[in-house]
Design brief:
The protein has 287 residues and is mainly α. The protein is 78% helix and 0% strand. The chain is built from 17 helices and no strands. The termini are far apart.
């Protein structure tokens, strides 16, 4: 397609520099597919994905039966959003080896990105059946089940992914969200705490933890957590919004007023939320 031609054109414009680096390999002997693959891997580690693709493409011209190299090329297409090209590579792999688990996982990613959840589920289950150690397949399957609101199955998939990759905050966070949506707030809180122990970005996790604490009625703790994710005025505004959603209009008014006292120039949303809370409180009987 047009996108494929653009990528190839971009890579060929950089080809001169690649050839100079390859001279170390090619001065005396013809470069093998494996040598091109190693060079591609080096570029990939350096974040030069287009240059890596060029080496993998050369390797496959030397030896089209190298399914591992074809998989790497397919993954690069997938990361670039070139789903038709990625699908073609993965299908070519499966023609040569129907038991190639990573190609089934790749197909699962393609169907997921196309919002074809049933097909994504089938391919991911097949990948896991062939290789239960594929943590990304377990994790993505959890996301698929979340989209389908099949939270019990999502939780099971995330637990399997966590068992394989316990230091990835993203998995703990997604597990926490599924637990939250299924009403298991204590377990959700534990998952968010685990996510915060990792090196992954924590802003989203902090807010998720605070919202869970609110569900448990622990509003003071939630406020402290919101403060860790931003400034004090933002924390009171966030807490006020949760009070408002829960119908606690008087508490919402207090929180929004506190946000505005702390930061009179606070963004308009806090003032709008305050007016919403006051309007809602007029509809409630006095206590």
């Amino acid at each position: 397609g047009t996108e494929y031609k653009k990528v190839m054109k971009s890579m060929k414009e950089n080809q001169g520099r690649v050839i100079q680096e390859e001279d170390v390999i090619t001065k005396k002997t013809k470069t093998t597919a494996q040598e091109y693959e190693r060079l591609g891997d080096t570029f990939l580690r350096q974040g030069q994905k287009e240059m890596a693709f060029l080496q993998y493409d050369r390797a496959l011209r030397q030896d089209p039966k190298q399914l591992g190299i074809r998989y790497k090329q397919g993954r690069l297409f997938l990361e670039k959003g070139m789903l038709d090209e990625a699908r073609r590579e993965f299908q070519e792999i499966l023609k040569g080896d129907p038991q190639y688990a990573l190609a089934h996982e790749g197909m699962g990613w393609i169907f997921f990105k196309r919002n074809e959840m049933d097909a994504a589920e089938r391919n991911l289950l097949r990948a896991i059946q062939l290789n239960p150690q594929l943590w990304q397949a377990h994790h993505l399957l959890g996301v698929v089940y979340d989209r389908q609101r099949r939270f019990d199955q999502a939780i099971l998939s995330y637990h399997r992914a966590v068992a394989l990759q316990p230091d990835r905050g993203m998995i703990h966070n997604n597990l926490g969200i599924s637990l939250f949506l299924s009403g298991q707030y204590e377990k959700a809180m534990d998952s968010f705490h685990e996510a915060l122990k990792t090196e992954d970005p924590k802003g989203e996790v902090t807010n998720n933890l605070a919202m869970t604490l609110c569900k448990l009625g622990r509003y003071r703790e939630a406020l402290d957590v919101f403060k860790k994710g931003g400034n004090e005025a933002t924390a009171y505004n966030n807490l006020g919004y949760i009070y408002l959603r829960e119908g606690k209009n008087r508490e919402a008014i207090d929180a929004f007023e506190k946000a505005l006292d702390l930061s009179p120039g606070f963004y308009v949303r806090a003032y709008e939320n305050l007016n919403r809370a006051k309007a809602a409180s007029l509809d409630l009987p006095s206590r």
